[in-house]
Amino acid sequence: MSHTIFESRYAVGPNEAKGLDTKGLRENFLIEKVFTADKIHFVYTHYDRYMAGGAMPVEGRLQLETIDELLKEPYFLARRELGIINVGGAGQVEVDGTVYEVGHKEALYVGKGAKDVYFSSNDKASPAKFYLNSTPAHQSFPTKRVTKDEANKIELGSLETSNHRTINQMLLNKVVDTCQLQMGMTELRPGSVWNTMPAHTHDRRMEVYFYFEVPEGQAVSHFMGPIDETRHIWMHNEQAVISPPWSIHAGAGTSNYTFIWGMAGENLDYDDMDKCPITKLR
């Protein structure tokens, strides 16, 4: 019996998105459930055929299975690459017989061609929560583990503008070779609530944001849409949101929080952004 849960979502253009109500926005862009005990959950989006989801092994290890209805390949990574960031307790990822220890807020890149991938937790009382992003790949690169200390760190913002944050570039071409997948983790300091300001779009790439460490009883309002006609989606802890290439992607929380960004598309240039002055947002 398969332990993989999945859904497929077609891309929505900016003109079509204008007609969506709150329910429609959430159904198309919000990923409400990322982690389920002893399951692997994926959302397959037709924006760059990106896949986002989570693996939460509790009672035993979970295998990364192919999804016949979506991939039409004998194994999951036959034509894909995979990025993993653990947001739970310590765990292990086994890739073709090699075991990698992946602790809290540590990352692992798995290249195209890896056949047997398994996820497990070191302690089921504090299970690992492996946040997963996957994109099509044309070349195989070596599997590599990246800790927070090994990430390329960027300090941005200030407490005065409520956006003092540390960007940890983890699965980025400055740190690890990938085909098109890039992932990192942004941590907001206490007293700061805004992320990704000034807002921007990049028509060459799409993104997925995963919000976590949102305190109980608090929430994040994620802003999306064209710069002159924005919308918002209210999000809670351990939820993700799909950001199309035509959309801004920014948020403000009722508390500080952490989020993981993942992206794919035309290039690997992290600074390829079409920035919008804050005063021009509508």
UniProtKB/TrEMBL annotation:
Keyword Zinc: yes
The reaction(s) this protein catalyses: 5-dehydro-4-deoxy-D-glucuronate = 3-deoxy-D-glycero-2,5-hexodiulosonate
Annotated metabolic or biological route of this protein: Glycan metabolism; pectin degradation; 2-dehydro-3-deoxy-D-gluconate from pectin: step 4/5
Record-linked SUPFAM superfamilies: RmlC-like cupins (SSF51182)
A GO term, aspect molecular function: zinc ion binding
EC number(s) from the headed UniProt entry: 5.3.1.17
Assigned keywords, A-Z: Isomerase, Metal-binding, Zinc
Superkingdom of the source species: Bacteria
Residue numbers binding Zn(2+): H200, H202, E207, H249
Catalytic class of the enzyme: isomerase
Cofactor(s) needed for function: Zn(2+)
GO terms, biological process: D-galacturonate catabolic process; D-glucuronate catabolic process; pectin catabolic process
Bound cofactor: record note: Binds 1 zinc ion per subunit.
Family named by the database record: Belongs to the KduI family.
UniProt function note: Catalyzes the isomerization of 5-dehydro-4-deoxy-D-glucuronate to 3-deoxy-D-glycero-2,5-hexodiulosonate.
PANTHER family (alphabetical): 4-DEOXY-L-THREO-5-HEXOSULOSE-URONATE KETOL-ISOMERASE
Protein name, as recorded: 4-deoxy-L-threo-5-hexosulose-uronate ketol-isomerase
Record organism: Sphingobacterium allocomposti
